[in-house]
Design brief:
single chain, 2 helices, mainly beta, two-stranded antiparallel sheet
Amino acid sequence: ILNNKVLANSDFFTGAFPAEFGNSIAGVFDIRMRNGNNEKHEYNGQLGLFGTELTAEGPISKEKRSSFLINYRYSTLVLFGFLGIKLGTTAIPYYQDASFKLNFPTKNGGTLSFFGIGGTSKIDILISKQKPDEVEIYGNNDRDQYFRTKMGVAGMNYTKSLNESIFVKFTLATSLEEQSSHHKMVYRQTDAQGAFVVGPDGYYIVDSLPDKQKFTFKIKKSTAAYYINKKYGARHVLKTGFIADYYRFDMIDSVYNHGTTYNWIVRWDHKGDAILFQPYLQWKFRISEKLTLNSGLHSQYFTLNHSFSPIEPRLGLRWTLDEKQTVSLAVGLHSQLQPMYTYFYQIPYGSRFVQHNINMGFTKSMHYVAGYEKRLGANMRFKTEAYYQYLFDVPVTIKPSSFSLVNQGSGFSRFFPDSLENKGTGENYGLEFTLEKFFSNSFFFMATASLYESHYKGSDGITRKTDFDGNYAFNFLGAREFRLDDKKSIAVGTKITVAGNKRYGPVDTALTVKQGEIVYIDSLANSQQLRPYFRADLKINYKINMKRVTHEIGLDLVNILNTKNVLKLTYAPDPNDPSANAVREEYQLGFLPIFYYKVDF
């Protein structure tokens, strides 16, 4: 949903980030939207296999230097189906999003801006409409599934310099995120001999039993943020502020039990609210011309269960060796809420249901980072970074098992947590290298390498590799522009990725057959690894620059070698061959050509 056409320079912090950022143990993306052109109107239109896109910007008042920026996209993959391109699913996703920013300089030296971003998406995975030879890697093979999501955020910023040494910023915003799903059971139609037949509605029949599952999760949030930045001479800068988030929850989820009771089981049923409050203090001290110290304190409190992290120290040191070399060191304590829906999952306790994990505290981590950067001439730089992260207070099951919340997010499914407590640990450490050549002499490139280890410990006390422990990742990105004449050019670019894949364990065959989905042997969790990941992309575009209009025709060839990268394992028994292995590998997207046409005027 983030569109680079509306983004300004934005900071991405991967560890030991400053005290003004909280509620995160891994990284922070500090996103900024750019202002529209306050001198002239500009428009951009794009048409391609993914859909359409329109962007407009320009002055609201040239005299007052106010501006607007608006972008809208509507996308669908329906054309890929017409072209016979295999996507791993017969379902067609539809999604659209929009963003805007209005910027108004004020008479008293301040700036008032209004911003917004939002989008919706839907996809219907209809097993009842599929043919026997069609493959579905994203949904379950025994049901029709209807998925809907939406999100939106809108707000305002006010910034003002009170004098030469004091700067203030105030933000108000409101946001919504919503996910819903509806499942209907289906079964394949067969004749008296068990062979598949085509009925009036296809190869499947929608089951006469009640719907299998329905859920709707809504989280609304209102945010107020404020800081004041004060300079004390040329060497000291003090920044203090707070972020206050007011959450409102509305979550309902029920599943139909096809066992002996034949009734609906309500797994989530919660309406309520909570506040996350985060004050902070930062101090920047320029010790000398070459040495700068950034230090600070962060704190956060969550009213839902009174989770409290009173003091989180942050410290960073940057030493400029000379005009081409710098060394940096950083350390910080960080904490983070659990995924919101995990607090409200409920289980039966006697004659009532109990939200057994509502008292989970923050997950916490200590970050240690050391970095070195060297400029190699005017247009190239080399960076390296070593890091260590220690995780603690991670939710794990009270009953001894390999489960840890650090592994959640490696797949597409929700999970239904057993009783959890904040006693798990983990660690991540590694080295990263980056060689980057900025665009000059008609070409650029960036090469990165990451070597790392990622471990955790569940409530059974055994140290294991996390789901994400691929051990290595290498990337190369580059492009070259060829000028045909003063108006025309062709650019050719490539991106190549080689990486270790996710971890998994041996399949528990008996439980998998019983439950109808993949179940792994708990004691051997993450003892195996999927085959390494490799993908090579190629992009070619042709551009014509005219006096008032620029035309661009492009072709992205995604996974040009059609490499089969394993996405996951799935349980899919073959009714025609019960003796065949029912556990199979599902693959990510193969070769995918993407055409687009763009015009700027």
